[in-house]
Amino acid sequence: MAIQKVTGEIIENNLLRSASLAFNTDLLYIDVINDRIGINTSAPGTALDVTGSARFTGDLTVQGNLDVEGQTSIIDTVNLEVEDPILLLGRNNSGSDIDLGIMMNRGAGNNNAVFYWNEGEDAFKMVTSSSADSTTAITDTAYAPLQVGKITVDQEIEITDNEIRTTTSNADLALSASGSGTVSINGMKFPTSDGTSGYHLQTDGAGNLSWVSIAGGVIGDLTISGSTISAPSNADITFDNSGTGDYIFEGTGQLTVPKGTTGQRPSAGLGIIRFNTSTGKYEGSTDGSTFVSFNTGSPGATITKDTYTTGNASTTDFTLTLDPATASNIIVYVDNVIQEPTQNYSLSGSTLALDSAPHSGARVVVMHGFD
């Protein structure tokens, strides 16, 4: 029979009830005494108690606290917006050794990306990991690369673009390796104050270093190999203190000056010092044009006399037993007549050249050892 019109009194008498109302036992149960509604339960424990799954089509606003007591919460949304400025992970953590962080699913066949706090190492780590999202200890498979604009470490070191600098005023920047390790720097630059010019060190792959300008041109081509510093052939190496400071060589070893024969002498220059292997003496230039020998022996020179009795009216060259520094360092006699340097004879190494040949039977005597 079809339901006829229901009067208002009947509706009111059924809705204003003093006893509970049940539909199909527990499909919908209205607990009038405790002001509770149950769905799929005849004993609702809260104002709305739902046993089983629930679905809301449309927005859901919870004005009180939302407490999810299940093991897994799944939010299947495109964008998740959280208003709270602080996210707390491990809310009920009792202080046990568990790792805390965020894991990102990278899809099948890929290790997940994890940013987390490693409790055992007391450090934040960015890694890839094969660990499941239910784990309490992350297993690292590899460190993940990090790309940032700037990193500040303990307010001491600052990395900006390609520059590393200290942020503490007047503080030193130290690069050091642990144990027997080394600090490896490729292409060290020494720019000038304007940053547009200067030099850097360049290696050749064999441990040798050379100075190269930032613009790319080689300057001086200074090479350091082991403990040897060398320049290109015939190039000078100049040490300039640009002031009144001294050049100080410390230690208990020795200082070795350049050495060579008389014939290997460089052009004379003021202040030159070298060892002459022909004369066995140190020599130098005090006037910028000639060389003089230094007397390093005991007081009093050892005079050597070379005597020649081979005058034949044609021979002008005579070979001396020593290699005097200059023509002024010898005394020449022809038949006991003294000869004048540069006027009557010249000297080239150990060869005495008279301007005119002595007569036959003439006696030529050369005294030297006055260097």
Briefly summarize what is shown.
With 371 residues, the chain is an all-beta fold.
Describe the structure.
This protein has one helix and 27 strands. With 371 residues, the chain is mostly beta strands. Among the domains are: 16-50, no CATH class; 98-168, no CATH class; 199-239, no CATH class; 259-293, no CATH class; 304-368, no CATH class. The chain has a four-stranded mixed sheet, with no helix packed on it. Strands 5-6-7-8 form a four-stranded antiparallel sheet, with no helix packed on it. The protein has a four-stranded mixed sheet with strand order 17-18-19-20, with no helix packed on it. It is rod-shaped, with a radius of gyration of 51 Å.
Instruction: Give me the count of strands.
Output: 27
Order of helices and strands: HEEEEEEEEEEEEEEEEEEEEEEEEEEE
Strand residue percentage: 25-35%
Taking strands numbered 1, 2, ... along the chain, how are they ordered across the largest sheet? 1-2-3-4
Basic shape: rod-shaped
What gyration radius follows from the Cα positions, in whole Å? 51 Å
Mean pLDDT: 82
Q: Given the helix and strand composition, which structural class is it?
A: mainly beta
The number of helical elements comes to 1
Question: Can you give the helix content as a percent range?
Answer: under 10%
Q: What is the terminal-to-terminal distance?
A: 150 Å
